[in-house]
Amino acid sequence: MHLAVIATLILSLFTNPVSNSFSDTFADPAVIRGQDGYWYSYGTSDPLREGEKVLHRLPIARSSDLVNWTYAGDAFGPGNLPSYAAPGSLFWAPDIRYLDGRYVMYFTVTDTASTPANWDYSIGAATAPTPTGPWTHIDAPVVAPRPSGNAHWNTIDPAQFTDVDGRKYLYFGGFFGGLWVTELSADGLHATGQPQQVAIDNKFEGAYVVRHDGHYYLLGSSANCCAGPTTGYSVLAGRSTSPRGPFTDREGVPLLASRAGGTPVLDQNGNRFIGTGHHAQLTDLSGQDWMLYHAIDRSDPFLDEPYGINERPMLLDRLDWIDGWPAVRAGAGPSERSRETPVTRGVVDDRFAGDLSGWRNTAGWTVQDGYVRGQGTLVSRKSLGGDVRVETDLKTDKSAGIRIGGTTAVVSRDGLTLASGGASRTVALPGGAATWHNLAVTVKGRTITAEVTEDRLRDPRASVTVTGSANGPIGLVADGGADFDNVSAAPLFKAVTKAVPTPRTGRLLDADEFDGPIGSGWTWVRQDAAARSEEGVLRWPVQGADLVGAGNKASVLLREAPKGDYVVETKVTLDLGEDAVRNYQQAGLVAYASDDDFARLSQVAIWNTRQVEYGRELTFADRLSYGGNIVGPPAKTTWLRLAHHVDPANGEHEFRAGSSRDGKTWTWGGVWTFPKDTAVRIGLVAHGGAQPAVNADFDYVRVYRGA
């Protein structure tokens, strides 16, 4: 291979985590592209490096390519707290936006001075003229603490969203209390009206909302963020035709239901990264969406000493849209190394730091303060044909926009107008573009789309599509004067539209249909005499015992697993009712090495929710660690699968979890692993609480060759 080609391939690679250059941990990342053309990310308040021991209060990182990041300071110094924050308050989970000509950062304040309680969470906000500050706190919480008995609801993890009618919303909340949305004042700094719940409690936190193809997508992180080597965080989604919901998943199950819905977007896949979640989204210059999120390296899960601060570095991966639903790398999950990098430079690319030598028709146009100002038509000397994306930041109180050949997209006081040939459409643009906005035009065949956003974060203020032809010189147009910056034109991304394969079943290797006594192929760990085969099922009264922790009083029914790749499946009927507290009754499959080394996939009651949890217990640093991963929504009768695969590179046993409500449509979740030489058996469990009495009825256990 030619050396130049090799060099190009090396340069096109990036390695996760992308935050390694400046930090060991950078949790809950938010991201925005600044008006200076750089990308900025913001993280939860933690020390950045092992051994540092000093919290950075909302640290900031900067990048020109989304892959190589440098530390750019902290938003706030150690004593810089808003007036309503109690001494010692922490700042968590920032969200960053550009609203009406200024940067607005929202964040969790862990302790509020207005109540004597600890952990009386509220949502704060600060504003700044640049992405790095100086930041000025507003004088009151955007969302105040919300009491619940002797505690306070999780008023955490803010995410702002602006709709096409100009209304601003803030999503927030967590496991204790669920996810909520409130409308904001026009300046985005005060909650108005009554908040509305959009996702059930005990399942979601870390909300993020985007608009895509006419739907609103609510994405939330599920399970536990911070269980060290057993952290099972993942991202799930629902969608709606309104920013207020109701949000339902791909199967039509509401996110507010007791048997709560959620379509997987990002799950751990068996490589070194677990606990993949709390994300932000962005779009590169080619139009490809990407996700920034944090994860945990399972071999190094803590920042310093074990069971201290979880080490959660920042990762970057491609975000695809498959049949109308978001999926990281088409469902492949986190990457360790990627050959795909975001497009952050275009064929046409000007940040206006110099002269206008790359442009024609420059009369009446001048470069000043890092942007170009003028009127008329400024035409690039470079051009490209075919499917393209052209964008610019612009500011005008008249009329200005982009020209591609004979096609124009122009913003004005009347709205956004897209004209191509004889086709022309205008849509409203609330507030106009008197402050900086981003205008992007995509050409895909004869379909031309123009979108206006304030901050390029998947919440278009206006969007319009026409059928036409857009080939020819690329230019900027202005009637009466306008300012332009960050102009780019790049080949349009090639969308990935097919999901990666999920586990399938091959030939049947072994089965027990439970049409007779429990067979000799089964062995018990702590036999339960109450479990019996009758009426064609294994009927097992749920035990008042558990496997988690050191007690280990629950029974386990096991059989030997075949060699190589296989899929074990069961169908279990477990009537846990709805809404009532039934902690933590459950039944399902288990991959079992010992009482302190297992992966358990079960339908479970977690307070008022019913979930399919895929939990893992193991020993780390001389202590037991347990955490969970969430799969699909359960039903009264739920089908469960564990798909076993041996990693050819390291010999690890990988078990991926799947669930179904009808035995036909499967939702696949995350992967838990066991070391190479571990002897893992497969089996059943039914435990977690004996009151009220309930039977787990297993119709069968079938083992298939993996396909």
UniProtKB/TrEMBL annotation:
Record's keyword annotation contains Repeat: no
UniProt xrefs under InterPro entries: ConA-like_dom_sf, GH43_arabinanases, GH43_C2, Glyco_hydro_43, Glyco_hydro_beta-prop_sf
Record domain Beta-xylosidase C-terminal Concanavalin A-like: where: 512-703
Pathway involvement of the protein, from the record: Glycan metabolism; L-arabinan degradation
Keywords from the UniProt entry: Glycosidase, Hydrolase
Organism superkingdom: Bacteria
Keyword Hydrolase assigned: yes
UniProt xrefs under Pfam families: GH43_C2, Glyco_hydro_43
Family the UniProt entry places it in: Belongs to the glycosyl hydrolase 43 family.
Protein name: Beta-xylosidase C-terminal Concanavalin A-like domain-containing protein
Organism of provenance: Nonomuraea rosea
